Amino acid sequence: MDKNNQFGYHAWLQPRVIESLPGFTLSGLEGFAYDECKKGIARLTGGKPGNTNIELSISDTLTHEAYTITGSFDGISIAGGGESGLLYGVYGLLARLSQGQTQFDVTEKPATSRRILNHWDNIDGSVERGYSGKSLFFKDGQIAYDPERLHDYARLLASIGINQICINNVNVYFQSAQLITQKLPDVARIADIFRPFGIKLIISVHFESPALLGGLETSDPLDEDVANWWKQATAEVYKHIPDLAGFLIKADSEFRAGPMSLGRTQAEGANVIAKALKPFGGMAYWRCFVYNCMQDWRDTVTDRPKAAYNYFKPLDGDFDDNVMLQIKHGPSDFQVREPNSPLLGAMDNTRQGMELQVTQEYTGQQKDLYALAVQWEEIFEHPVTSTSKTRDLVGNKIEAVVAVANTGSDANWTGHLLAQANLYAFGKMAWDPTLTAAQVTKEWVALTFGTNPQLFDPMVDMILSSRAVYEKYNAPLGIGWMVNINHHYGPSVDGYEYMKWGTYHRADTKAIGVDRTSAGTGLTAQYHPYVRDMYEDKKTCPEEIMLYFHRLPYNYRLKSGQTLIQYIYDTHFEGVDDVKGFIQTWESIKEHMPIDAYTPVRQRLDAQLKNAEEWRDVVNSYFYRKTGIADEKGRKIY
C-alpha cells in the first residue's frame, strides 16, 4: 500500500501545505518530541526555511502530561511537564497551525490520567465487532504486524491523547492466552513501538489462566497455588514489558467463568490478580459487564440492566487499590439510546473507569454514518445528582475513560472514512469531557478536509445530525435492540424477544416498553434520588428514553401531540428522507474533495439508504400488524 496515495491513511494528520504559514526553526530540548515537531512542521510548510523559532522545553511547574503553548509567529514556546506533555504540546501546536491560529496562549492538561483504547483483536486476525478490516497485531494464529503502520497508528493515537491500549480481545480464548505467554518478546517489540509516543500496553488475560495455562486443578482466587501462579506469571510478563499498564479481565460474563462460578466475589477474583500486579505498578482493569445471560423470557422480574449495580455496589471498599472497575456507560450494552449506568460514581471507595464504544456495534457498524460524539456529549451531560453531571466525575470518581476501538487494517483505518471522526472525538473528549460534539467535529473536518466553507459547513452539519437520523429509523424512544441477533446490523424487531439475553421490548397489541419504575423492576431505585424521581414520572422522564423506563399504550400522546404509534411511523419515514439528504449533501461537495475521499463515502451512504429503508419497512410493518392502527398520513406500510 502506498500510504501517500491513500487519502484516509493520514486521517487528521493529512500532509497539507498551508501557504500562509511562515517557515519555522526549532530549538531547545532535542528528542522524540523535537523530531515529531520537525516532521509535523515539514508536513504543513513543505519544509520551507524561515525565521520563526519554536522552542521546546520541560517545565517543573506542570504535571507530567500537561503543556503550555505561548507566543506568535514572532516566536513560539512549547513547554511540557514531562516528555509526554511536551509531545502533546507539539501535536497541540500542529493542530492549531492547521486550523489557522496565529496567536497562542494555551495551557492544557488531561481530565484523567488514563485514556484507553481496548482492541478486540483475535489471534486469527479477525476483530470482534471490527468493521474496518483485519487485526493490526495478529494474523493466522501468530503475532504479526507492519512496524511502520503501527508507528503511524501510535502517532495518530498520541495526537489525540490516548495513552494506553489493550492489543487483544477481552474475550480471551485459550489459544490467545497461550500465544501471548509464549510470544512475550514479540509483544515487547509492539510495546517498543508505542512507548516513545507515551502509550503503554495492556494485555487481556483469561481468569482461568491458572488452570488453562498453569495446569492447576482450579483457578479459585483464594487458593494459595493460584495466587502464586498469578505472581510468577505476572513477573515473567514484566521482565519483558516493565512498563505494562496492567491486565484487562472479563469474568462471570456471557458464559465465561469467573469468581462467582467458584463461589467467590468479584472483589476476591480481581484482588488476586491485582496483588500480582501491585509490585510492578500495574492495574487490574476489571470489567463490570456481569449479568445472568440465561434469563427466561417469561421472567418479568429479572432485569438485566440492574445487574452491574447489584453485583458491584455491595462490594464497595473490598477491591484492592490497583483494581479499576471498567463500567459500561449504560446499563444495557452500547445501544443507540440508553440512560447512564447507575453504577458510575456510586462507589466511594473503589476506583472506576467508564467504558464507551468507538466501534459501532449497535450504531451502524461503520457502514451507516453515526456521530458518536453527539451521544458522548449527552453521556457526559447526564445528571448524577441535582447539582452534578457525569463530566464532573471524570478525573475524580471516574479515573479512566475507555473505549472499544474502531480501527483495523483498512487503508483508512476505520472502514467508513467519516468514522475517523469518532476515533478523533473519543481521544479529545476523554482528554477534556467538557468539549462539545460540535467542537470536536469541526476540528476533525478542518484537520482532515480543510476549512473551505463550501465543504466544511455542509460536512459538519451532516456529521452532527447523523446520530439523530440513525436513531429515527432505529428502535424508538430508548427501547433498544430490535437488531439481527447474529451480527447486530439491520432490523429484527423480535430478534432478541424470546432469547436468553434479557433484552426485551415486551410489545403486544396494546403497549410497548418495560416498566423499570418502583412499580416495575425497580431499576430507577439504583439512581440518586434526583435522577430516580426524574425517571419515575412520565412527565419528567426524557421522552427519548421513555420506553426504557415506562410501558406505554400506542395511543399515548407525546409532547408533540403525536401518538406513540404515529411517532414510530413518522420517524422511520423521516430517517429515510434524511439519509437521502446526506447523499444530496455529499454530491454537492464532491468537487471540493479528492475522489478517493468522495467515492468510498458515497458507496457507504448508498448502502445506508438501503439499510434505512429496510428498518423503516420492517419496523413500521411490525407495529402496523401488531396494532392494526393505520398511518395517519396514508403512506404505504407493508
SSE inventory with pairings:
Elements: E1 24-28, H1 32-45, E2 52-58, E3 67-72, E4 75-80, H2 83-98, E5 104-108, E6 114-118, E7 138-139, E8 142-143, H3 147-159, E9 164-166, H4 174-182, H5 184-194, E10 200-204, H6 209-212, H7 224-240, E11 246-249, H8 266-277, E12 283-287, H9 307-312, E13 323-328, E14 351-357, H10 372-381, H11 390-393, E15 398-404, H12 420-431, H13 437-449, H14 453-472, E16 511-512, H15 529-536, H16 546-549, E17 552-553, H17 564-588, H18 595-627
Parallel strand pairs: 1-2, 2-4, 6-9, 6-15, 9-10, 10-11, 11-12, 12-13, 13-14, 14-15
Antiparallel strand pairs: 3-4, 3-5, 7-8, 16-17
Helix pairs in contact: 1-2, 7-8, 10-12, 10-13, 12-13, 13-14, 14-17, 17-18
The count of helical stretches stands at: 18
Biggest sheet, spatial arrangement of strands: 6-9-10-11-12-13-14-15
Distance between the termini: 47 Å
Number of strands: 17
Helix fraction, binned, reads 25-40%
Radius of gyration: 25 Å
Computed structural class: alpha/beta
Mean pLDDT: 96
Shape: globular
Poorly predicted runs are none
Give the biggest sheet.
Answer: 8 strands, parallel, barrel
The portion of residues forming beta strands comes to 5-15%
Summed up, what is this model?
The chain has 638 residues and is an alpha/beta fold. The chain has helices at residues 32-45, 83-98, 147-159, 174-182, 184-194, 209-212, 224-240, 266-277, 307-312, 372-381, 390-393, 420-431, 437-449, 453-472, 529-536, 546-549, 564-588, 595-627, and strands spanning 24-28, 52-58, 67-72, 75-80, 104-108, 114-118, 138-139, 142-143, 164-166, 200-204, 246-249, 283-287, 323-328, 351-357, 398-404, 511-512, 552-553.
